[in-house]
Write a structure and sequence with these properties.
By secondary structure, this protein is α+β, with helices and mostly antiparallel strands. Among the domains are: about 90-200, Dipeptide-binding Protein, Domain 1 (Dipeptide-binding Protein, domain 1), CATH 3.90.76; about 295-515, Dipeptide-binding Protein, Domain 3 (Dipeptide-binding Protein, domain 3, Roll). About 25% of the residues lie in helices and about 20% in strands. It contains 17 helices and 19 strands. The strands form 5 sheets. Strands 13, 14, 15, 16, 17, 18 and 19 form a 7-stranded mixed beta sheet that branches. A 4-stranded mixed beta sheet has the order 1-12-11-10, with no helix packed on it. The radius of gyration is 26 Å and the shape is globular. Residues about 1-50 have low confidence and may be disordered.
Amino acid sequence: MQKRIMALFLAAAMALSVTACNSSTEQKNETSTEQKTETTTPAETTPAETTPEVRDTFTVAISYMPDTLAPHTGGSDDYTSMTRPLYDKLFIENNEGGIDYYLADSLEISEDGLTYKIHIRDDANWSDGTPITTKDIQFCVDYSIHKYGYNRYCRVNGVEGTINIIDDKTVEFILPQPYNYEIVTLSGMTVYPNHVFNGDPEALINSTEYYNKPGFVTSGAYTVTEINEDSFVCTARDDYYRGTPSVKKVVMKVIGSGSTRAIAFENGEIDYMRITTIDELEKYEAQSDKYNIFSMSEARLNYLQVNPFGPANLNDEQREALFYAINGDEVIAGAYGSEKLATNPNSLLTPDISLYNPETPDYVYDLEKAKELAKSSGLEGMTLTYIYNKDRANMEAVAVVLQQQLAQIGVTLNIEGMDSSSFFPRFFAASSYGMNGQEKTWDLGTNGWDSMRGSTLNQAYSYLNQSSNAWGLTDVCGELAAKVNTTTDKAEAQKLADEVIELALAQHRIYPLTYTNYVMVSQKYVTGLDCSPIVPEFIDYLGISVNG
């Protein structure tokens, strides 16, 4: 497999994009200056002034109507995208390794790595005008204790720390030992309104009815003003603490996928959509007078997992034969058609993570070696069950390419595509959902770690530091991963990260398949979709304009 340097942005897309993060709408009035001078006929009326159409609505396609818009019930990327206009985080780690602040305006980490001090913006407020304070942070902690039995915001390796409320706007999370992943934990906190639920976690748990009616309290730039059978409408707050959005309404509308969504987009029913194939990309690139194209790193690693509990119970030599048979460049070409959409990875970390090392040794494609090992190990002639999530872009195409490649070494893949609700319980049966028999029903599967950015091992940590030996890696991987997240020395963290990634890859359990780019096409009048390059989209609606 040849190494590929990740394409951060599409060159062609940049030429087409006319975005500006602090975009302001310029309305140009064109007045005719021509006048008729004939004296033999009455004077003709000067043509009426023409004014460009002023838009105020951004229409987004969603896959389904959620059962509730409550902030504590989410989990999927789709749900996160739907509720991004409504709920702000304290802060978010960006792709440059820094922090973008929202409800908070500062984060101080002590030199010993034990204390995380957060200050909430003085002007941060709920949509009903109530200030956002440390009472709301305490409510989040109380909810965590009520739901999980412990404070998940300052717990390290099973040991709880403490929370210290300094004043109405300042709070400290004090850890029992250094834990670099704490910044990820805190950035993922959704702040709940203490005053709405009178500080009662049980009331929050039973709040479905409250969040299913327009007008519930939000912390983001929008409130919900309509909820219909197939859509809901978010209206901009004029008291939002970060400024008033130029987009006054965001309509979340259920639209089918694939060609159905493309037709809706081309008919102007929605304002943007994701592009996942080279045919789509070339089609819309050729119509730069009608559309803008935006691209950003998805910070996602799509990977192939060998199931340690699978019916074939593949041994070391058999797994090695499988990996020699995979041609990563062919996967990109066959499933995506262009490195503008995805590139060939070399690591279990993405380039969006500061611990990523571009020199991590890559898997080598060697078909002859694969055939030799397949024959000597008994892999040749086997039939393996391969599962994938058909709701995820390009996963079916990847499965077909791998099916063809492994057929060359005498391995038959029976591929099964499932929707998300069926795939995840089966894929994670040995870990998240507990042993229930489903973990023994498949041999190979593809999945993705998303939002892998920042300064830690991020989602790879949960695999490397596994429970129940769910992914077949040695205990040493977990020990090294834990050390990466607990050392305060950056150089030591990098050294340990390199060691654990190389060790994990050497076990032929997880094969990095693709680093994906998130490519979008929008109507020409839409700008600013790449102002906050976070997937799922969009973390900051203030940068979006629907007036060019």
